[in-house]
Structures are given as C-alpha cells and as structure tokens.
Amino acid sequence: MTVARAARAATADDPVWQLFERIGTFLHDQRLEPDPANFAFAWHLLHDSTGPLAKAVAALTDGGVRLTKRDIESLGVDSPASARSVREKADGLVARTQMQVEGFQDMVQAMHDETVGFGLDIARSADAIRRFGAGGEGAMFDELSRVTATMLERVHSAESRLENATREAVELRDKLEEARDNARRDPLTELPNRRAFEEAYAELSEKGVGICVAVCDVDHFKGVNDRFGHAVGDRVLKTIAETLRASCASHLVARYGGEEFAILFAATGLDAARSTLDNARATVAAKRYRLRETDAPLGEITFSAGLTLVAAGESLGTSVGRADRLLYAAKNDGRNCVHVA
Questions:
Q1: Catalytic residue among 143, 259, 293, 300
Q2: What's the pTM?
Q3: Which residue has the higher pLDDT, 204 or 84?
Q4: Pairing verdict, β 338-340 and 303-309
Q5: What residue ranges define each of the domains in the chain, with the CATH number in brackets?
Q6: pLDDT band at 19 (very low <50, low <70, confident <90, very high)
Q7: How far is CA 162 from each of CA 35, 113, 118, 319, rounded to the nearest angstrom?
Q8: Among this protein's residues, is 198 annotated catalytic?
Q9: How far is CA 76 from CA 82, 139, 145, in A?
C-alpha cells in the first residue's frame, strides 16, 4: 500500500488521521517547513494540547503572532529520537541525584550516631563532585556541587548545634549527678545521709556481704546547744563527723539524724569493727574543744555507741533497732563507751 493510499484509507473518525491533519494545519498556519524537527515540535504540542508546551505556544502566538525557528529551539523540543535521549539523560540525572540525596540522608543519620569526622566525609564528597564535574555536564555538577556545599554548611551548623546540645547534656547530667548526690548527702557534715545508708545496707545484704552496724550518739549534746548555741553545736557535729570518717575510712559513715551517726562495716568481723569504733570514740574524747570566738573550753565531748553483727537476710530495721538498744545501754552504763552484741 502506498502512502497516498494509506492517507486515503484513513477516515475522519480515525484519531491518528485527525492528529496528522492537525499537525499539517499547524505547520501551514505557522509557515513552518514540514521537516522532522518542526513535525516533532507540532506532535508534542498537539499530542498534549493542555500541557506546558501548549500554554507556552499560546502565550507566544497570542494576537496572531507566528512562531519562528528560534522560538521552537528555545522551547526545547527536538525530534522523537532526540526527545527520548533527553528523557533518558534526565532519568539518569534523577537517578544520580536520588543517589546523592540518599547519600546525604545516610550521612545525616550517621551524624546522629557519630558526629566526629562526618563533616570531613561531606567535604570529600564535594571535592569528588567538583573533580568529576570538570570532565563534562558541568552545569549539572555545578548544581550538585552547590547543593553539596549548602549541605556542608548545614552539617557544620548541625555539628555546632549537636556540640552545644552535647555540652548541655553533659552539664545536665553533671547537675543530675550532683542533685542525686545531694539527695544522699548531709549538707552540714557532708557525710552520706540516712537514705544513702539504707541503700548501701540493702545492696550489701543482697550481695551476701557480712555486715556490722553501729549507731553512735553524741553525749549531752543538748547541753552544748543550750550553753553555746546551735552554731557551736553544728561545729561540734562537723568535727565528730570528720573524726569518724577518718577513723573508719574504709567503711560507710553516715549522719543518721540529729546528733546521731551510723556506721556500716562491710566484710569486717565484729571484733575488728569494735576495735575501729572504739579507736574513733577515744580520738573524739581526747580532743579539747574550744570556742572559736573566745578560745574558752567547751568541756569534754564524747559519744556512746551500739555495735551489732547483722545476721544473713536480717532487715535494716531489725539490725538498727538492736544497735539502738545497745546504744542506750551504753548511755545507761555511763556514756563514752561502746556496747557490742
């Protein structure tokens, strides 16, 4: 079948023939040669009569203005084969850009896990893109280089923010540690408080470590406060606390409340604990306390104590209760002594 016969065989209802006629009419009206480039342009235009190309042509030809060869070239439409090549190139660019984006996402995620060295990796990526871009398709690689440079700036900014956040987190952690320590420390004597003592007792009991518990109470402490005031009484408590801490250095000494101290002897037999505690008692009793303001003597300052060996699995209340009873027995026995059981 010849071309003429094929054209005649087409009917007015044939969409292909209708598009062919519309292309011919367009080329005739615009005084364009029916060459492959113009034909391809007309095909793209009329195949999608409401698309971006049609809108651009309508704007250019508004008022009866005809298209020129330069107009067609500026609109960027080539032959079908060329258009397919452009699409293939565009697809390749999209794929490579997608890879770059995914790479950036991976690097951003890695920055969350390990910030150190991340900016250097991005910088190396930027240099590689610039070197690769020098070999061809410069505009694309210039753009990728620009995007990478922008990303690098953002990474540096993010690193700075992460550094600040890390520093703030460290400061917050230190403050939390300080607050946790303060919650377990007596502010006057700086010894562990009752809460810290109870926690240590529970931990040692759970581990099955042998424990001895002592409860100490300053003798006639109310008289010190009444005669010299609470400020002097506080200084006395601090001095006794320092002596107990020094004498029982390898054990936990806590301020249990008021003028009362508790000592937790871990992995120590009753005899060794008694020797250590009695040495601390003698050291306190040997001191000569004087008023700081007038150098007047305060008189003898002593403490009494009850010391007991904790049975396996015995509760804190039971063992401390027994040590308390021993303490009061020491008080009744003349004070400034240690009772043991």
A1: 259
A2: 0.54
A3: 204
A4: parallel
A5: 3-78 (no CATH), 82-165 (no CATH), 194-340 (3.30.70.270)
A6: confident
A7: 62, 11, 12, 51
A8: no
A9: 10, 17, 25
